[in-house]
Write a structure and sequence with these properties.
Strand content: 5-15%
Strand order of the largest sheet: 7-6-5-4-3-2-1-8
Number of strands: 8
Radius of gyration: 20 Å
Distance between the termini: 47 Å
Length: 294
């Protein structure tokens, strides 16, 4: 019986994911009992338990804020983590993951099931926008780029989506039915730290950038604002909320933009301050290994 290309791709990714896990298990078994005892990597049970713990803490924060749990999206930040750990979370029902490195995300999107929603949350060079869009979107349920801070990058992403649409082998009727949009967040540097990207929260910088994107980038959907605040400084949440309100009013948007803020150490406070997206990594997957990253 014939199967579609999407079904075949999904079957291949599932097969590859199973193979990755099997090889990992064989390697662990071959290393001996002593090595197994010494291993401190997060196990399948740990990922599931950690996810449940985070969800319970999210629910409590929502209750304290008088909000519905469904009003907050959890992005499981899986940067530097092997695909088998992502599959542990996937098999526990999670579908939204965040990555910081283009090449790592491109590889995982091709290997893992194609019903995953990927959030790119790291610095993105404009010359890699085309690779990110064209490699991930065809292999995912959705791609969202949270770190747009310049009109140059926005234009590169917009052009990449336009090019992808032209390359898709669809007849004209199908193209009319399907309008491909890339979700983006504009990053705001609420802490003012030189080491962090983002537009200034002061003046009209955020309003001007958002206005340019809405007016000149038809293939981008301005979904919200994102920030990476200084550790322990919850004032960043209030600053981002203020900027969101300014942008929403200036652009006369029918509904407020979303807020992506809060990480492992402060996601509960972020929820209590109105976050609609939180990015939690080490609390779910364990400490990260950056030894192979530039």
């Amino acid at each position: 019986q014939a199967i579609s290309l999407n079904q075949w791709n999904h079957h291949q990714r599932t097969f590859r994911s199973s193979a990755v896990r099997k090889m990992s298990e064989e390697a662990t078994a071959g290393a001996g009992a002593d090595a197994t005892t010494a291993t401190t990597t997060t196990t399948m049970t740990d990922v599931a338990l950690n996810l449940d713990s985070v969800r319970q803490r999210m629910e409590s924060a929502c209750e304290r804020s008088g909000r519905s749990m469904s009003s907050v999206q959890l992005v499981a930040v899986s940067k530097t983590k092997p695909s088998d750990l992502l599959m542990d979370a996937y098999n526990h029902g999670h579908r939204v993951f965040g990555e910081n490195y283009v090449q790592e995300l491109v590889g995982k999107a091709k290997e893992l099931p194609n019903d995953i929603v990927w959030h790119f949350i790291g610095p993105l060079q404009s010359n890699k926008a085309n690779l990110l869009v064209k490699s991930v979107i065809p292999n995912a349920a959705q791609l969202c780029v949270e770190t747009v801070a310049t009109i140059k990058l926005a234009n590169k992403l917009n052009n990449a989506v336009a090019s992808l649409i032209e390359e898709q082998k669809e007849d004209e009727e199908d193209k009319k039915k399907k309008k491909l949009l890339l979700d983006i967040f504009v990053q705001v540097n609420t802490s003012g730290e030189d080491t962090k990207s983002g537009v200034s929260p002061d003046g009209d910088a955020a309003v001007d950038l958002c206005k340019q994107i809405v007016e000149t980038c038809p293939h981008l959907n301005l979904r919200g604002l994102m920030t990476i605040g200084a550790p322990g400084d919850v004032t960043a949440f209030r600053v981002l909320t203020r900027v969101r309100d300014e942008v929403t009013a200036a652009l006369q948007m029918p509904s407020p933009l979303e807020l992506s803020m809060g990480m492992s150490g402060d996601f509960e406070e972020a929820i209590e301050n109105g976050a609609t997206t939180i990015r939690v990594g080490s609390t779910i997957f364990g400490a990260r290994d950056y030894s192979n990253k530039a």
